[in-house]
Write a structure and sequence with these properties.
mainly beta; six-stranded antiparallel beta barrel; six-stranded mixed beta sheet; 5% helix; elongated
């Protein structure tokens, strides 16, 4: 059984495409194209289920058309419409120093000044020029690379030099 901490959300399935079981995939992270993966994980009725890809092709920077194995009709593909799509953390190259915003959801923020935990990242708001970490308790922390002093993938922690007074707001 796949556990939620073993994966991270990268997008959502949209409408069906054609009659042979293809479906549109709206993604926030194209890790499935950068990392050799045979499958994506879908959330079906609250359970994470692997779906193997036969093929996919990009339509834009944020959309792909995916054909999953054993999904051969428009009706079968329609059943997947709206499903969240997740990617296995284990498939991401751990030697790579780069990490995507989607991959750090679930990481803990550590204050570089005090060494104390601040909170856990629930989402990343990258819709504006100033990217923000949205913590589970509702706090917003700037995600500026200039403030990030450490990244520990193994312990899922990001150390940030949080500006004085920010946590008091």
């Amino acid at each position: 059984m796949i556990k939620e901490e073993e994966v991270y959300k990268i997008g959502k399935l949209g409408k069906t495409h054609g009659v042979k079981g293809e479906i549109s995939f709206l993604f926030d992270d194209d890790v499935f194209d950068r990392v050799d993966a045979d499958y994506l994980v879908l959330m079906i009725d609250g359970i994470l289920v692997p779906f193997f890809m036969e093929e996919y092709r990009f339509r834009s920077n944020a959309t792909a058309i995916v054909k999953f194995e054993d999904i051969d009709t428009q009706e079968r593909a329609r059943e997947l419409t709206g499903c969240d799509v997740w990617f296995p953390r284990a498939l991401v190259d751990s030697d790579d120093d780069t990490i995507t915003w989607a991959a750090i959801v679930g990481y803990d923020i550590i204050d570089a000044n005090s060494g104390k935990p601040v909170g856990r990242i629930a989402s990343v708001d990258d819709t504006t020029l100033n990217i923000l970490f949205c913590l589970e308790d509702g706090q917003l922390i700037p995600a500026s690379e200039d403030l990030i002093t450490g990244l520990d993938k193994e312990n899922k922690q990001i150390t940030i030099n949080i500006p004085e007074g920010l946590l008091d707001l």
